[in-house]
UniProtKB/TrEMBL annotation, chain A:
Its main location: nucleus. This is Brix domain-containing protein. It is found in: Nucleus, Nucleolus. Belongs to the BRX1 family. The lineage of its organism: Eukaryota, Viridiplantae, Streptophyta, Embryophyta, Tracheophyta. PROSITE patterns: BRIX. PANTHER family: RIBOSOME BIOGENESIS PROTEIN BRIX, RIBOSOME BIOGENESIS PROTEIN BRX1 HOMOLOG. Residues 17-31 have a biased composition (Basic and acidic residues). It comes from Eragrostis curvula.
Automatic annotation (TrEMBL), chain B:
InterPro entries: Ebp2. Its main location: nucleus. Residues 298-309 have a biased composition (Polar residues). This is rRNA-processing protein EBP2. Transmembrane segments: none annotated. Residues 46-77, 183-325 are annotated as: Disordered. It comes from the Eukaryota. It is found in: Nucleus, Nucleolus. Pfam families: Ebp2 (PF05890).
Length: 327, 325
C-alpha cells in the first residue's frame, strides 16, 4: 500500500530536523484500512509508532520474512502443523519439501537466501514419528534445534476459537525467559519470528489473538487464544469489559524441547546443549531393552530357585505316604 | 469465572464445569521430560548428521509408548556435565540479532508475565490454567496500553474478512458442540425419569391406601345410617340419605389423567408391548419401510419340495410300523 512509503518518508523528514518542504503539492489524504485519513497535522501526534522516539534513534522497520519448509516423508499431523504456522504468520513464505540427505545445511541456507528471507522454520520429521523444528536466523544468525511434542493442530474440533487471518498477535512470555542467557536468546528469536511486522502487506489491523510462550519443566509451551471482550467501539473496551474478557483457544498447540543452539545457521559451533535431552530413539531403545530382559531374568530366577532348593532340602514330610495305598 | 480449559484428567469422569472443553490427548505423545543422558560419545560434531542414526536398527518395530512415567529410568544416566554452555558467545549472538532497545512497543507487542510458583507439568488442568492466566493477564495489560495509545484494536462485529478457520470448519465445530449438549441433556432427562419412576411407585402405593380408607369410611357411614334408621324405627319424613360427603373437600372429580403415548386408534390402550427393540425397530421401520408381512412369500417351490431339513429328524430311525401316539 502506498501509504507505507509515504509515512516512512514523512517520518524521516520529520526526524531529520523538521525540514518539511512546503512548496510541494498538498499531500493526498492517506488511504488506510479504515478509510481515508487526513494528512498529519504539523504536530506529529498522528504518527505514533513509526516516528522516532528520540531524534537520534534511527527509524526501525521490521522487515522480517520467515521461510517455512519441511523435509520429505513428513506425516499428516506435522504437515498440518506446518500449514497452521503458515496461516498464523502472514510474513511467512512456504516452500516445497526439501530432499535431505547430506549437506542439508548448505542447501537450506541457499534456499533462504534465494527467497530473500531473514529467518527460517524448518520442520524435519524423522522416522515418521519425531518432529524436529529448526529455528534459524538467516545470514549467519544463531539457530536452535527443538524437538516438538504434544502437537494439536487447528483442525481439532475441540479447539473452537477463530480469529482474523493476518491480524497481529499479542505475545506473552513468562518471566523465566529472562533468567538464563540461552532462554533470552530463544525469547528474542521467538519474538522476531512470531511477531507480525507492523506494516506488512498482509497484516490486518486488529488485535484479536494472543500467543502464549511459557517455560515449564525446561520446555517451551505454545498456545494461541482468541480474545473475546464485550465492546461497542473499536478503540475502547466497554466499562468493566476487561473483567469480562474470555479467551477461547484457537490452536495449534505444541511443546518445544530445545536440543542445541548453534552459532551459525543450520550448523556451526555449538553454543548450548541441553543436558536433560534424550533423543526419542534412545528412549525407545531403552524401553525395548527393558522388555528384552524379561525372559532372561525369568530363566535366571528359575535357576536360582532350583539352586536354592538343592541347597536347602526339605525334611521328608511325615504325611507324604498317607494316601499312598488308595486309588 | 471458570476459564475454558483443556485436557481430560487421567482420573475418570467428574462433573464438568459448563463452558469447559476437556479432551484427551489425541496422538500427540510427549516423550519423558526429566530424562538424563550421558552425552559423551553420542554428540557428534556435525549437527546435521543426526546422532540418532546409530540407534536406528534397534527400534523398527516398537510402538512408541506413552512413557510419561518414564519407565526407562532404570538405565538412568546422569545429566552430562560436559554439555556445552557458552554463555558469553550466546550473549554476543543475542546482541547481534536483537532489535534495538528503543524500539516502540507497537512493533513487538510483547508482554512478560510472572508465572508464580512452579507448575506441575503432569497436572494437565493446572498447566492449562497457568497458560490461560498468563494469556489473560498479558492481554489485559496490552489492552490497557493500546487503549491509552488510542489505537483501534478491537474488531467490529461487522468486519468480514478471511478468518484462520473456514466457515465449514466452524460449522462442524458447532455441530459437535450441539450434539454434546444434547447428549448431556438426554442423560439428565433419563436420570430424572428414573428417579421419578422410583418415587411414582411410592406415590401410587399411598394413593391406593387412601382410596381403600375412603371406601371403608363410606361403607361405615352407610352402615351407621342404616342402624340409625333402624333404631329410629324407620320414621317417615326423616329421609335424608347417609352423609356421604358429596360436596366435600375434593368434590366429585373426574380423573384427569391423560395417557400419553396412546393413540386413539390403539385398541389395546397402550398396553400392547412393541417388543424389545422398541426405539430401534421403529426408527428402522421409519427409515427402510415396514418390511411387509411374513406370509406373502411362496411356500411350495421347486427348492422346498425336496427340502426336508425342517422335518422331525429322529423319527426316521425308529420303526415306522410302531404306532405313535
Amino acid at each position: 500500500m502506498a501509504k507505507k512509503r509515504k509515512r516512512a518518508a514523512d517520518a524521516a523528514a520529520e526526524a531529520g530536523a523538521a525540514e518539511k518542504p512546503d512548496d510541494s503539492a498538498p499531500a493526498r489524504p492517506e488511504r488506510t484500512l479504515f478509510g481515508f485519513k487526513e494528512p498529519p497535522a504539523p504536530a506529529p501526534d498522528a504518527e505514533p509508532a513509526s516516528a522516532a522516539v528520540s531524534p537520534a534513534a534511527p527509524l526501525f522497520r521490521n522487515k522480517e520474512k520467515v521461510l517455512v519448509t519441511c523435509s520429505r516423508r513428513i506425516t499428516f499431523r506435522y504437515r498440518h502443523l506446518m500449514q497452521d504456522m503458515v496461516s498464523l504468520l502472514p510474513h511467512a513464505k512456504k516452500d516445497s519439501k526439501v530432499e535431505s540427505k547430506q549437506s542439508k545445511g548448505a542447501a537450506l541456507n541457499e534456499l533462504v537466501e534465494l527467497r530473500n528471507c531473514s529467518s527460517c522454520l524448518f520442520f524435519e520429521c524423522r522416522k515418521q514419528k519425531d518432529l524436529y523444528l529448526w529455528m534459524v536466523k538467516s545470514p549467519g544468525g544463531p539457530s536452535v534445534k527443538f524437538l516438538v511434542n504434544a502437537v494439536h493442530t487447528m483442525e481439532e474440533l475441540k479447539l473452537t476459537g477463530n480469529h482474523l487471518k493476518g491480524s497481529r498477535p499479542l505475545l506473552t512470555f513468562s518471566t523465566n525467559f529472562d533468567e538464563q542467557p540461552h532462554w533470552k536468546l530463544v525469547k528474542e528469536m521467538l519474538t522476531q519470528v512470531f511477531a507480525t511486522p507492523k506494516d506488512h502487506r498482509k497484516a490486518k489491523p486488529f488485535h484479536d489473538h494472543v500467543f502464549v510462550f511459557s517455560i515449564v519443566d525446561g520446555h517451551v509451551w505454545f498456545r494461541n487464544y482468541q480474545i473475546s471482550v464485550p465492546h461497542n467501539e473499536i478503540d475502547k473496551v466497554d466499562k468493566g469489559g476487561l473483567d469480562k474478557m474470555t479467551l477461547i483457544e484457537v490452536g495449534p498447540r505444541f511443546c518445544l524441547n530445545p536440543i542445541k543452539i548453534f552459532a551459525g545457521s543450520f550448523g556451526g559451533p555449538t553454543l548450548y546443549e541441553n543436558p536433560y535431552y534424550i533423543s526419542p530413539n534412545q528412549i525407545r531403545a531403552l524401553e525395548k531393552r527393558k522388555k528384552a530382559g524379561k525372559y532372561a531374568k525369568k530363566v535366571k530366577a528359575k535357576v536360582r530357585r532350583k539352586m536354592h532348593e538343592m541347597e536347602n532340602t526339605l525334611e521328608p514330610d511325615e504325611f507324604a505316604d498317607m494316601w499312598k495305598g488308595e486309588d | 469465572r471458570t476459564p475454558a480449559l483443556f485436557y481430560a484428567q487421567r482420573t475418570p469422569r467428574r462433573p464438568r464445569p459448563p463452558a469447559c472443553l476437556l479432551f484427551a490427548r489425541a496422538g500427540g505423545r510427549r516423550l519423558p521430560l526429566r530424562s538424563k543422558v550421558e552425552m559423551v560419545g553420542l554428540a557428534s560434531e556435525d549437527p546435521l548428521i543426526h546422532d540418532e542414526v546409530d540407534m536406528d536398527d534397534v527400534d523398527s518395530d516398537v510402538e512408541e509408548s506413552d512413557s510419561e512415567d518414564d519407565s526407562g529410568e532404570e538405565a538412568q544416566l546422569t545429566p552430562s556435565d560436559k554439555a556445552i554452555y557458552n554463555r558469553e558467545a550466546i550473549l554476543e549472538k543475542l546482541e547481534d540479532i536483537a532489535w534495538p532497545q528503543k524500539v516502540d512497543w507497537m512493533h513487538k507487542l510483547t508482554i512478560d508475565h510472572d508465572q508464580g510458583e512452579k507448575i506441575d507439568v503432569n497436572d494437565d488442568l493446572a498447566r492449562e490454567l497457568a497458560f490461560y492466566t498468563q494469556a489473560l493477564d498479558g492481554t489485559r495489560e496490552a489492552f490497557e496500553k493500546l487503549q491509552s495509545m488510542k489505537v483501534r484494536f478491537l474488531r467490529p462485529t461487522d468486519y468480514y474478512a478471511e478468518m484462520v478457520k473456514t466457515d465449514a470448519h466452524m460449522h462442524k465445530i458447532k455441530g459437535r458442540l450441539l450434539s454434546e449438549k444434547k447428549k448431556i441433556e438426554e442423560a439428565e432427562e433419563r436420570k430424572k425419569a428414573r428417579e421419578a419412576r422410583k418415587r411414582a411407585k411410592e406415590v401410587q402405593a399411598e394413593k391406593k391406601k387412601e382410596r381403600a380408607k375412603q371406601k371403608k369410611e363410606e361403607i361405615e357411614n352407610v352402615k351407621k345410617w342404616r342402624k340409625q334408621r333402624q333404631q329410629g324405627g324407620f320414621a317417615k319424613g326423616n329421609d335424608d340419605g347417609p352423609d356421604l360427603n358429596f360436596e366435600g373437600e375434593d368434590g366429585f372429580k373426574q380423573s384427569k389423567k391423560t395417557r400419553p403415548g396412546v393413540s386413539p386408534g390403539d385398541r389395546s390402550g397402550g398396553l400392547a408391548k412393541r417388543g424389545k427393540e422398541g426405539k430401534n425397530r421403529r426408527s428402522r421401520d421409519a427409515k427402510f419401510g415396514y418390511g411387509g408381512r411374513k406370509g406373502l412369500k411362496k411356500q411350495n417351490t421347486a427348492e422346498t419340495t425336496n427340502d426336508f431339513r425342517s422335518f422331525n429328524k429322529g423319527a426316521e430311525s425308529q420303526n415306522k410300523k410302531r404306532k405313535r401316539s
